[in-house]
């Protein structure tokens, strides 16, 4: 019975055989001597064929048999997996981290060298703020460090509720929800809403955590060219045509546009007013990631909605982390309760992770206090950004990427050498030169193979309110010197 | 006729084995230190009643949805903005049926806010709901000194003793709270490296890497280790973060029955023999993903058997010790130590600092090549913020304490204390006739409640008696197996446990929760004796 292997074969062969036999028998019964000779011959052949069919060995449609135990053992013996990880060469650009001893604040010690920090996203200088530290210490005294549980299981502290409340008020939205890690915020928020079959339109320059959120959602992803509203509209129109073909499906296909306020990868701002127009025209929801713009743009630091004067209710969901301007850890989403509340049961990073340590939440609350009490801080930051942007113009062989008011700029090579590796090495030499001259910079790091659209290599220049005019001039001239001597 | 083994080998691709290990639990192989593991099945009527219960609530749900639809009942659900009424609905109606009609009615049992240290006792903030849980209002009062049976504070490091936290406070002063950069850019602080060296030493491996969030440790590192053409064999009860990481990796995922070694071997054997689907090329790598202690079952992974299997089939082993590190093993080194195995038998050791260490974050440890590779390829090393310095200091302090590097025996005492508390609490619950799941050594103790109504009544009754418990039901557990879960802590005193046991006994009688049909012999002397023996063992081991 070896050929039971191929299911269905039995069913095909047996009836065929039966039909032939029956046909043959009918023919035999009709046999008469008056029949013409060719008829007899034909029927004779038919009978012979039937006999042959009856006695021949059954054949298989597909030659396949089970592996014997022995063969299996051999296969198992034979199989050699790849090593768990490929070896990494010692001079891999990301193998040798810069070592920061002491705090990563305005004055920073990198690889043993005292420097001025132009690399940490400490835009408002709150990392070193005494008030923030005092609040954190008070919280530490009361709550200890960890929360030892997710929000659902006694991991909700009064501090968390207060922070959520404060964030919602600060952003002037109905509700806010906090996550214990910035990276997990938007990466959890997207798959909470967008499911298999839904469609997400996303900017090509979107940051890595957005990409991971999209991947986790298993939705259809359509990338539009960076900040190109015409390209987005083209995709939306295409979708509209597609929808008309299948209106039943269209009625349940949710669609989203995911953009960043200030792009971390390009340091430019998204055209929000135009996006809002498209939103209502094509009925898509906007998810806005504001990690770089929260506490930076706008008169009160509310981000890109305030910057453009867009009604915040027109944005369905805003997400940001508290690891840059706020100088703590964690992230949050805010918007209308109708949208946000859903994450309390569906946001994976919210439900299945321990909640934010209370002292980090307390620090974030105090940071919000400072931001609310002194909104001038945002115009100071803006001024510094413009200074840095201006000072970096005309660096030989390099171009500045980003808006003049962006606090984290990119310095790219004006012309690439053709090889990414060489470019990175050259930029690294510039960074090293500056480190030597006590200016701490860093390369913008990416996972080359994982990025959907890998940005060209660049040096990150981060502006903070603590940098003085002299610091900025020194940094700019230092970079210029380095570029002159290294790029020639 | 086909032999059994050929059937195994023909198990087709994308096998999803549902069902659970019931009855006797997994076969035990070489159990050195490990205790018994039990999963007693409830009597038939319990399952019938449970389904009836769910059926009834579902019917009522439909009825009330109908009332809402015709406007006879007030609808509390948050509404879409008027401007967006003609958008494709953000949620499908049926998706939220259970949230609306079941969860809403009982949600006062979760997310209870607290306003104190999550230590052995805490203060719960009182909340009231004027509208059957659609909204809550905090009254401003607190329910003080509720015994905490829910937090993962295994070794009692959730503490606010000023002397213990001195170094943490110093780090706040010195560093501030955040880092404002990633490890690869400007966030690689000396204190992180110090911690990584200590973690490696603690675990007895070559190298370790730490990350700022436990959940992200899984979800951002698994994709760096496996990818397309690789196979992940995942225990059916693995944590969401492992499942997410596996999904993000792009590898093929197959599931084996919880802690069931026959099921694992069957899937493994089939995978090696028949290779990838369609192409039949051999798999590039096969990675077995398991947890040390399963947080909903209280079961301990059959590590010796898995190590044997992984060696036989040349698979790699990824072990998530979120709940077991610090919590089991004579010196708190986790399940490898519990079974007396060499940590290098496990290829990837992962764990979190949220639980036993009372902090936040996670680690990945193993061979130097592995960690070096992750340093350059892990998503979180490149894109996520580095760990907060004071949090790092808390882990350093707790780990030094467990290792005895602080010059005291406090850590060691706590590890013993937790083991004692675990044995004591488990045996008392069994005596009382409750069905509890899991391993004798596991400080996570699920107590089966089954029926949805009892879940809610139990949780509320216990809070009235000032005991904070965690209850979980569908979808976190199978639909018929809702349960309460206790997490023991070294910080629980005998008096606290006795009070909880006393209350449990009464509530158990009141609500008819004692489903067990087994007979347990009365404990007193025998158990005491065992505990002493256990202590002796520990002492010998720590020498």
From TrEMBL, chain A:
It is an enzyme of class 2 (transferase). It holds the Pfam family Aminotran_1_2. Keywords: Acyltransferase, Lipid metabolism, Pyridoxal phosphate, Sphingolipid metabolism, Transferase. GO terms for cellular component: endoplasmic reticulum; membrane. GO terms for biological process: ceramide biosynthetic process; sphingosine biosynthetic process. It catalyses: L-serine + hexadecanoyl-CoA + H(+) = 3-oxosphinganine + CO2 + CoA; tetradecanoyl-CoA + L-serine + H(+) = 3-oxohexadecasphinganine + CO2 + CoA; dodecanoyl-CoA + L-serine + H(+) = 3-oxotetradecasphinganine + CO2 + CoA; octadecanoyl-CoA + L-serine + H(+) = 3-oxoeicosasphinganine + CO2 + CoA. One of its GO terms (molecular function) is pyridoxal phosphate binding. InterPro entries: Aminotransferase_I/II_large, AON_synthase_class-II, PyrdxlP-dep_Trfase, PyrdxlP-dep_Trfase_major, PyrdxlP-dep_Trfase_small. Its cofactor is pyridoxal 5'-phosphate. Pathway: Lipid metabolism; sphingolipid metabolism; Sphingolipid metabolism. Its EC number is 2.3.1.50. Gene3D superfamilies: Aspartate Aminotransferase, domain 1 (3.90.1150.10), Type I PLP-dependent aspartate aminotransferase-like (Major domain) (3.40.640.10). Residues 114-477 form the Aminotransferase class I/classII large domain. It comes from the Eukaryota. Belongs to the class-II pyridoxal-phosphate-dependent aminotransferase family. Component of the serine palmitoyltransferase multisubunit enzyme (SPT) that catalyzes the initial and rate-limiting step in sphingolipid biosynthesis by condensing L-serine and activated acyl-CoA (most commonly palmitoyl-CoA) to form long-chain bases. The SPT complex is also composed of SPTLC2 or SPTLC3 and SPTSSA or SPTSSB. Within this complex, the heterodimer with SPTLC2 or SPTLC3 forms the catalytic core. The composition of the serine palmitoyltransferase (SPT) complex determines the substrate preference. This is Serine palmitoyltransferase 1. It comes from Esox lucius (Northern pike).
TrEMBL record, chain B:
The lineage of its organism: Eukaryota, Metazoa, Chordata, Craniata, Vertebrata. Its cofactor is pyridoxal 5'-phosphate. The chain crosses the membrane at residues 42-63. It comes from the Eukaryota. This is serine C-palmitoyltransferase. Pathway: Lipid metabolism; sphingolipid metabolism; Sphingolipid metabolism. Coiled coil: none annotated. It holds the Pfam family Aminotran_1_2. GO terms for biological process: ceramide biosynthetic process; sphingosine biosynthetic process. It is found in: Endoplasmic reticulum membrane. It is an enzyme of class 2 (transferase). Gene3D superfamilies: Aspartate Aminotransferase, domain 1, Type I PLP-dependent aspartate aminotransferase-like (Major domain). Keywords: Acyltransferase, Endoplasmic reticulum, Lipid metabolism, Membrane, Pyridoxal phosphate, Sphingolipid metabolism, Transferase, Transmembrane, Transmembrane helix. Residues 523-543 have a biased composition (Basic and acidic residues). It is a single-pass membrane protein. Residues 145-501 form the Aminotransferase class I/classII large domain. InterPro entries: Aminotrans_II_pyridoxalP_BS, Aminotransferase_I/II_large, AON_synthase_class-II, PyrdxlP-dep_Trfase, PyrdxlP-dep_Trfase_major, PyrdxlP-dep_Trfase_small. Belongs to the class-II pyridoxal-phosphate-dependent aminotransferase family.
């Amino acid at each position: 019975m070896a050929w039971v292997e191929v299911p269905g074969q039995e069913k095909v062969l047996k009836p065929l055989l039966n039909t032939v036999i029956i046909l043959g028998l009918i023919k035999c019964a009709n046999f008469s001597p008056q029949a013409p000779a060719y008829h007899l011959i034909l029927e004779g052949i038919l009978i012979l064929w039937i006999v042959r069919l009856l006695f021949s060995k059954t054949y298989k449609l597909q030659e396949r048999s089970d592996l014997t135990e022995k063969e299996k053992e051999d296969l198992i013996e034979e199989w050699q997996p790849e090593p768990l990880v490929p070896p990494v060469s010692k001079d891999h650009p990301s193998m040798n981290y810069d070592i920061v001893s002491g705090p990563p604040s305005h004055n920073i010690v990198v690889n043993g060298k005292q420097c001025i920090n132009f690399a940490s996203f400490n835009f408002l200088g709150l990392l070193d703020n005494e008030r923030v530290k005092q609040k954190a210490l008070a919280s530490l005294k009361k709550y200890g460090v960890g929360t030892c549980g997710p929000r659902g299981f006694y991991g909700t502290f009064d501090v968390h509720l207060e922070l959520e409340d404060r964030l919602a008020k600060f952003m002037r939205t109905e509700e806010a929800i906090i996550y214990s890690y910035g990276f997990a915020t938007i990466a959890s928020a997207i798959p909470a809403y967008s499911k298999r079959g839904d469609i997400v339109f996303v900017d090509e320059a979107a940051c890595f955590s957005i990409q991971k959120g999209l991947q986790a959602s298993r939705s259809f992803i359509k990338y539009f060219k960076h900040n190109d509203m015409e390209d987005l509209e083209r995709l939306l129109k295409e979708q509209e045509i597609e929808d008309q073909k299948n209106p039943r499906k269209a009625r349940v296909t949710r669609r989203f546009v995911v953009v960043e306020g200030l792009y971390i990868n390009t340091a430019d701002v998204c055209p929000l007013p135009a996006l809002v127009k498209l939103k209502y025209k094509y009925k898509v929801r906007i998810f806005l990631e504001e990690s770089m713009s929260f506490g930076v743009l706008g008169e009160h630091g509310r981000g890109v909605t305030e910057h453009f004067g867009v009604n915040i209710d027109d944005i369905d969901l805003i997400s940001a982390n508290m690891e840059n301007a706020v100088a703590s850890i964690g992230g949050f989403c805010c918007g209308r309760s109708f949208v946000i509340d859903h994450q309390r049961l569906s946001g994976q990073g919210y439900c299945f992770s321990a909640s934010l340590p209370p002292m980090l939440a307390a620090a974030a609350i105090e940071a919000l206090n400072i931001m609310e009490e002194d909104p001038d801080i945002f115009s100071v930051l803006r001024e510094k950004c413009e200074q840095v942007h201006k000072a970096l113009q005309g660096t030989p062989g390099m171009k500045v990427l980003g808006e003049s008011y962006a606090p984290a700029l990119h310095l790219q090579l004006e012309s690439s050498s053709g090889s990414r590796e060489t470019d990175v090495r050259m930029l690294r030499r510039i960074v090293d030169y500056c480190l030597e001259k006590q200016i701490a910079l860093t390369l913008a790091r990416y996972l080359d193979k994982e990025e959907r659209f890998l940005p060209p290599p660049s040096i990150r220049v981060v502006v903070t309110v603590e940098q003085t005019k002299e610091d900025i001039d020194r940094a700019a001239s230092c970079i210029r010197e380095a570029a002159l001597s290294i790029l020639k | 006729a086909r032999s059994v083994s050929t059937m195994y080998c023909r198990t087709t691709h994308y096998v999803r084995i549902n069902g659970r290990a019931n009855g006797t639990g997994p076969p035990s192989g070489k159990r050195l230190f490990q205790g018994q593991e039990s999963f007693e099945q409830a009597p038939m009527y319990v399952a019938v009643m449970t389904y009836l219960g769910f059926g009834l609530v579902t019917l009522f749900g439909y009825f009330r949805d109908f009332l809402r639809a015709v406007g006879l009942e007030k609808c509390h659900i948050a509404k879409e903005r008027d401007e967006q009424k003609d958008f494709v609905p953000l949620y499908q109606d049926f998706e939220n049926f259970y949230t609306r009609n079941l969860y809403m009615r009982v949600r006062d049992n979760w997310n209870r806010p607290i306003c104190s240290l999550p230590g052995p006792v805490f203060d719960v903030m009182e909340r009231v709901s004027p509208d059957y849980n659609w909204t809550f209002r905090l009254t401003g009062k607190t329910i003080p000194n509720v015994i905490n049976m829910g937090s993962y504070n295994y070794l009692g490091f959730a503490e606010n003793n000023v002397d213990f936290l001195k170094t943490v406070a110093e780090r706040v002063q010195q560093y501030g709270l955040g880092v404002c950069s990633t490890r690869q850019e400007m966030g690689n602080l000396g204190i992180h490296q110090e911690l990584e060296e200590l973690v490696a030493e603690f675990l007895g491996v070559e190298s370790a890497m730490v990350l700022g969030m436990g959940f992200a440790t899984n979800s951002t590192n698994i994709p760096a280790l496996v990818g397309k053409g690789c196979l992940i064999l995942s225990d059916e009860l693995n944590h969401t973060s492992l499942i997410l990481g596996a999904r993000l990796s792009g590898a093929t995922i197959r599931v084996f029955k919880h802690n069931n070694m026959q099921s694992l071997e069957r899937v493994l054997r089939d995978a090696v023999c028949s290779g990838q689907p369609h192409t039949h090329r051999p798999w590039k790598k096969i990675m077995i993903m398991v947890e040390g202690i399963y947080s909903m079952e209280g079961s301990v992974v059959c590590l010796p058997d898995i190590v044997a299997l992984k060696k036989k089939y040349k698979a790699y082993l990824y072990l998530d010790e979120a709940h077991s590190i610090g919590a089991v093993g004579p010196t708190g080194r986790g399940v490898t130590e519990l079974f007396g195995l060499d940590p290098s038998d496990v290829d990837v050791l992962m764990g979190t600092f949220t639980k036993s260490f009372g902090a936040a974050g996670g680690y990945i440890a193993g061979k130097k090549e592995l960690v070096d590779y992750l340093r350059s390829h892990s998503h979180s090393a490149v894109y996520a913020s580095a760990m907060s310095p004071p949090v790092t200091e808390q882990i350093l302090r707790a780990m030094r304490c467990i290792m005895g590097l602080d010059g005291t025996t406090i850590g060691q005492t706590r590890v013993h204390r937790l083991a004692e508390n675990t044995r004591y609490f488990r045996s008392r619950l069994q005596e009382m006739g409750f069905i509890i799941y899991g391993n004798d050594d596991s400080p996570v103790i699920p107590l089966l409640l089954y029926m949805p109504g009892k879940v809610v009544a139990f949780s509320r009754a216990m809070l009235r008696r000032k005991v904070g418990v965690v209850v979980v039901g569908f979808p976190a557990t199978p639909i018929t197996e809702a349960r309460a879960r206790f997490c023991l802590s070294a910080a629980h005193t005998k008096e606290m446990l006795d009070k909880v046991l006393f209350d449990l006994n009464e509530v158990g009688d009141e609500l008819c929760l004692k489903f067990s049909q087994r007979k347990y012999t009365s404990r007193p002397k025998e158990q005491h004796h065992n505990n002493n023996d256990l202590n002796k063992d520990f002492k010998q081991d720590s020498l």
